[in-house]
Specification:
heterodimer; A: mainly beta; 5-stranded mixed beta sheet; B: 329 residues; 22% strand
Chain lengths: 101, 329
């Protein structure tokens, strides 16, 4: 299955976050509990950790870029060779969110 | 709005724009220092002073006790003795405790000494309601506008926070720099190149033809939300962000109102003797026939009950309704 990794939220006062650091490149198989990415809000660093296994397939927001709360950060899949959707719009509309803590 | 070539920008949180202005000013001028509660190792209540103590040391970034009159008194005295302090008063409500040294000494010392002494102090303080009740929510910037010798700035964007703080830290006399609790979660583009924003110049944030909304600080964002709603009804709002409240840039407001024919003033503080009262009078002096309405908080303390808080404060719907009524009057 294909999963979308989203900026956690919603949060009443946060509109968007800055991507600080990815803790694994494309192809990395994340285990449950592993740190995937650190995001920065106006007052804190948010650690996004996997709550399920998954292979990082495509990073849409590199370190230093910004993304809105609830929007797409990256694509993961169960199978490292599973065919990815053609566009981010397709991802947003059809795929389930990758579980994080 | 500008014919200049677009400048390269970087996106910063509001707090980062403040830290950047201070970092550059402290690097350029060793007289610049920071005084306040939790400004040192803690990095400021909104993290707007993070990094300064590491870069410039505890001599220039000093934590103070919870004693606002003493903090501003210290800052004003240090300024008169040749330093350029920024005093951080976390809640604008507690600026009241330090008004004596600010108003009776800092604002008057140049006049009183025939120019032999000046007090180039910046008092940075955070206004606005965000669930913290009657004595941690107030916007009292209008109180300061009638003090000769006092400059008051109130940015609404990270770029203006950066640029106006740079100007304030170079100003000849005391400047009150008013930010807002609800601006700290925001981010915005700031020029990569170092620079400043001149004190005393308003800016048109949104172009429109039917009505001018003159506002400042966080309410600029609420005005924009109202303008978007009204645009869907075919009403076109021009938004003037005052940026500096003393001295007021009446010319920019008048230029806009002369074209739209109607003025709505908008502030989060009280309307009685408020920013809008001053603006509308001065605009009417120049343009006697324009229609005017003003919006501010209801005449009640701001509650810590969130329903009562939002009932008291201007929101997009109240602004839109005021504009609709003004335009049919």
């Amino acid at each position: 299955m294909i999963y979308k990794l989203l900026v956690p939220g919603p949060d009443e006062e946060i509109e968007e976050m800055r991507v600080l650091e990815w803790h694994g490149g494309v192809g990395h198989a994340f285990r449950p509990g592993e740190l995937i990415v650190e995001l920065e809000t106006h007052k804190a660093v948010v650690e996004v950790r996997s709550a399920q296994p998954g292979v990082l397939r495509n990073v849409l927001c590199e370190a230093g870029s910004w993304q809105k709360v609830g929007a797409l950060l990256a694509v993961l899949s169960d199978d490292p060779l599973e065919l990815l959707p053609e566009s981010a719009e397709t991802m947003e509309a059809w795929h389930v969110a990758f579980e994080v803590t | 709005m500008s014919s200049e070539a677009p400048r390269a920008t970087v996106k910063l949180f509001f707090r980062e724009a403040i830290a950047r202005a201070l970092t550059e000013a402290m690097r350029d001028d060793e007289r610049v220092m920071v005084l306040g509660q939790d400004v040192g190792r803690f990095g400021g209540s909104y993290k707007e002073f993070v990094g300064l103590i590491d870069a410039f040391g505890p001599e220039r970034v000093r934590d103070t006790p919870v004693a606002e009159a003493a903090m501003i008194g210290l800052g004003v005295g240090a300024a008169a003795a040749g330093m350029r302090p920024l005093v951080s008063i976390t809640y604008m409500d507690f600026l009241m405790l330090g008004l004596d040294p600010l108003v009776n000494y800092a604002a008057k010392v140049r006049y009183k000494t025939g120019g032999q002494l000046t007090a180039p102090v910046v008092v940075k303080t955070t206004a606005g309601a965000k669930g913290q009740g009657v004595a941690h929510s107030q916007c009292i910037e209008a109180w300061l506008m009638g003090v000769p010798g006092l400059v008051v700035v109130a940015p609404s964007t990270p770029a203006d926070a950066y640029g106006l703080l740079k100007s304030a830290l170079r100003a000849q006399g005391p400047v009150v720099f008013v930010d807002h609790k609800r601006l700290f979660p925001t981010a915005g583009e700031v020029p990569v190149d170092e620079g400043s924003v001149p004190i005393g110049r308003a800016v048109v944030r949104r172009r429109g033809t039917d009505v001018t909304i003159a506002t400042h600080s966080y309410m600029t964002r609420v005005a924009d939300e109202a303008a978007s709603r009204l645009a869907a009804e075919g009403v076109s709002c021009e938004i003037v962000d005052l940026r500096t409240l003393a001295p007021l840039d009446v010319a920019t407001v008048c230029e806009s109102v002369a074209a739209t024919g109607a003025l709505v003033t908008l502030e989060e503080g009280q309307t009685a003797c408020g920013v809008g009262a001053e603006i509308s009078f001065r605009v009417r002096e120049a343009l006697p026939d324009v229609r005017v309405a003003r919006i501010g908080a209801l005449p009640a303390p701001v509650s810590s009950n969130p329903i009562l808080e939002s009932a008291c404060l201007p929101d997009a719907e109240r602004i839109a309704e005021t504009v609709r009524r003004l335009l049919v009057s």
